[in-house]
Amino acid sequence: MDKKTFYEKLKTARIEAGYKQEHVAKHLNLPISAISVMESGSRKIDVFELKKLADFYNKPIEWFFHEHKSFYKRRWYDLDPILSEAIELLRQAPSKLQRSAAYGIIGFLKQGGFVVPDRDL
Question: Which pTM was predicted?
Fold first, then answer.
């Protein structure tokens, strides 16, 4: 794996975890700009920062170095097979339909009393 792929995976992990750069910066006690330059590859990260990021993103450290999905750690919504399938179908939907489909899923979940885990820091 090359450096570019590693830094791209940092951004991918953040997005998959559902965080904005500002949340990550707050968690690491860094300025938002530091997260941006980390993800672009302009700033190196040390092993302690990587460990914190891996834990925060719910990924094993190996995930950042391997291209295999076998290292993938489950996201909170993967624990519910119906919700997981709905989100996967949403990702596959044409971009023009994704927003309205997302609102439909949210409405369905609210009717069923589904509670999204708290993402506040």
Answer: 0.56
